[in-house]
Amino acid sequence: SIPPATVSRLPLYLRVLGEMPKAHAMISSEQLANVAGANSAQVRKDLSYLGSYGVRGVGYDTVQLRTQIEMALGLSADLVVAIIGAGNLGSALANYKGFNDWGFSVGALFDVDAAKVGSQIDGLAVQPMSRLEDLVASAGVMIGVIATPAGAAQEVADRLVSAGVTSILNFAPTVLRVPEEVQVRRVDLSTELQILSFHLHSGRRS
Amino acid sequence: SIPPATVSRLPLYLRVLGEMPKAHAMISSEQLANVAGANSAQVRKDLSYLGSYGVRGVGYDTVQLRTQIEMALGLSADLVVAIIGAGNLGSALANYKGFNDWGFSVGALFDVDAAKVGSQIDGLAVQPMSRLEDLVASAGVMIGVIATPAGAAQEVADRLVSAGVTSILNFAPTVLRVPEEVQVRRVDLSTELQILSFHLHSGRRS
Ligand SMILES: NC(=O)c1ccc[n+]([C@@H]2O[C@H](COP(=O)([O-])OP(=O)(O)OC[C@H]3O[C@@H](n4cnc5c(N)ncnc54)[C@H](O)[C@@H]3O)[C@@H](O)[C@H]2O)c1
Ligand SMILES: NC(=O)c1ccc[n+]([C@@H]2O[C@H](COP(=O)([O-])OP(=O)(O)OC[C@H]3O[C@@H](n4cnc5c(N)ncnc54)[C@H](O)[C@@H]3O)[C@@H](O)[C@H]2O)c1
Predict the structure, then answer these.
(1) Is B206 inside any structural domain?
(2) How far is residue B189's CA from residue B179's CA, in Å, rounded to a whole number?
(3) Of A49, A72, A95, which one is at a domain's C-terminal end?
(4) Between the CA of residue B84 and those of A47, A175, B115, what are the distances in Å?
C-alpha cells in the first residue's frame, strides 16, 4: 500500500508530466524532482510504489508514467462532485474550469438560502438542501465539497455521510467528526496565512 | 526552534481555544487533542516548544495559552495581504470576512484586465499591475496571494519578491521558483481532490 506522503506528491508529479512538451518522451527522476520541489531519491522511492522503475541513465517513459499515476489515483473514471454552499467561495468553485482537467465534474450545487435556490451558476441550478439525498444518488456524487459557514459544516457533513458520500473536501474552518471510513481533506485559508505569519515573525527574529 | 509539523498544528489549537466558551478557564491536552484531531502526547510536545507546560491533572490556562500561540505565530501585529488576480477566486477571497478574525487585512487588489481595474470589491478598488511596487510599499504588504492563471503565477511571484514581499500563498496550480528566504504555501484544489480520489479508488479495491 502507498504511504500518505507519497500519495500527496503523486498529483504534483502528474502536473509536471502534464506540462511537459509532447516530444519529451523520457523524464529523469532529477527532472521530476527539480520541478516538483522534491529530491530525486524521494521521487524514485515514490514511483517504486506504483511498480514503476526507471532505466538507469535514461529515466521514465512520460506517457507510461502518467498512465500509471492516473490509475493509482483512480482518475480513469469521471468523479462527480457536489458543492454545498453557493456563496462567495462555493460559486467561485462552481465556476472553476480546472475541475474538468482532471476528470472531476460538478454534478450538483446546494444552498439553504431560498433566494439562491433556482439561480444558475455556470449552467447548474442551485438546489435546496431538501433534495440532497436524492440528487447525490441520481447524479452519482462521490465527493462533497463544503463551502458553508463553519457553524453549518458538521450538520452538512453528517447529511453527506448518511447519503453515502465517503469523501469530503472541507473549506469551512472547523474540524469535522466523521466515521472512520470517511476521508476528509481540509483547506483552511487562515491556517495557511498563520503559518506564513510564523515564518515572517521568526525570520524577523533570527 | 519549532518544527514545521508543530507550526502547522498551532493554528488548529488556536481555533479550538477560540471556540471554547469564555467560562472554560482550563483545558487539558486530551480535550485539545480530541477537538484538533491529534493525540494528547503530541499536543503536550507541541506546546512545550512554546515554553508552555500544563499542570498535571489540571491542564493549561486557556487565556494564557491562546496568547502564547498568538505570539509564536506573530499574530499580535496586523498583517497586510495583497491579492493578485481579481477573478472568480480572487474576488471571493477579497470578500472573505474571515481574514480579519486573525489580524489579516486585505490592503490591495491587482489585475491585468483593464475592464476589472477600478471596479470595487468589498470597498477596495482593483489596481493595475503597474502600481504593484508602490502600493506594496505604501500599504505595508507582507503577504502576496496569487489568484491568477497558472501561466502568469511565476511572473507575478517574481514581481512580488522584487517588491520585497517574502511570503506567498499560491492558489495557481503550478510550482513556483523563489529565492531561499521566500516562504511559499500552496493551496491546490486538484491535488486535494486527487488525494480523495486515491482513497476512493483504493477503498473500493480493498
Ligand atoms: N470566501 C473565501 O475566500 C473563503 C476562503 C477561505 C475559507 N472560506 C470558508 O468557506 C466558507 C464559505 O465562505 P463564503 O465566503 O463563501 O461565505 P458565504 O456566506 O458567501 O457563503 C456561505 C453559503 O452557505 C450557505 N449556507 C449556510 N448554511 C448552510 C447549510 N446548513 N446548508 C447549505 N448551505 C448553507 C449560505 O446560504 C451561503 O450561501 C466559510 O466557512 C469560510 O470560512 C471562505
Ligand atoms: N475558482 C476556483 O474555485 C479555483 C479553485 C482552485 C484554484 N484556482 C486557481 O486560482 C486561479 C484563479 O482562478 P479563477 O477561477 O479565479 O480564474 P479567473 O480567470 O476567474 O481569474 C483570474 C484573474 O487573473 C487575472 N490575471 C491574469 N494574468 C494576470 C497577471 N499576469 N497579473 C495579474 N492578474 C492577472 C485575470 O485578468 C483574471 O481576472 C487559477 O490559477 C486557478 O487554477 C481557482
Answers:
(1) no
(2) 25
(3) A72
(4) 35, 29, 15
Calpha distance B185→B169 (Å, rounded): 5
Q: What is the CATH number of the domain that holds B133?
A: 3.40.50.720
- Residues A26, A63, single domain; the answer is yes
CATH of the domain at A31: 1.10.10.10
pLDDT single digits (tens) A89-145: 999 999 998 888 888 999 999 999 999 999 999 999 999 999 999 999 999 999 999
pLDDT range class, residue A164, cuts 50, 70, 90: very high
User: Are A167 and B200 a contacting pair at CB < 8 A?
Assistant: yes
Q: How large is the average pLDDT for residues B26-48? A: 91
**Is B204 part of a structural domain of the chain?**
no
Chain B CB within 8 Å of residue A49 CB: no
Last-in-domain residue among B18, B51, B72: B72
The pLDDT value given to residue B204: 60
Q: How many CA atoms lie within 13 A of B94 on its CB side?
A: 25
User: Number of structural domains, chain B?
Assistant: 2
Beta carbons within 8 Å of A159's beta carbon, 6+ residues apart = A129, A132, A133
Whether A13 shows a pLDDT value over 70: the answer reads yes
Dmax (CA) for chain A in angstroms is: 62
Residues in chain B: 206
B85 and B182 in a single domain? The answer is: yes
Same domain, B100 and B182: yes
Q: Indicate whether residue B147 lines ligand 2 (CB < 6 A).
A: yes
Q: What is the torsional sign of CA B110, B115, B121, B125?
A: positive
Residue B137 domain-assigned (yes or no): yes
Decide if A1 and B37 are in contact by the 8 Å CB cutoff: no
Ligand 2 mutation pick, B88, B113, B126, B131, max ligand atoms within 8 A of CB? B88
The residue-averaged pLDDT of A180-185 equals 94
Q: What is the mean pLDDT of chain B?
A: 92
Question: Residue B22 sits in which domain range?
Answer: 4-72
Provide the pLDDT for residue A206: 40
Taking contacts as CB-CB distances below 8 angstroms, the residues of chain B near A204 are 74
| Predicted pLDDT at A34 | 86
Interface membership of A194 toward B (CB under 8 Å) = yes
Q: Is B149 on the interface with A (CB under 8 A)?
A: no
Examine the domain organization and report whether B176 and B129 are in the same domain: yes
Cβ separation of B192 and A181 shorter than 8 Å?
no
Find which of A50, A81, A197 to mutate to test the B interface (most B CBs within 10 Å of its CB).
Answer: A197
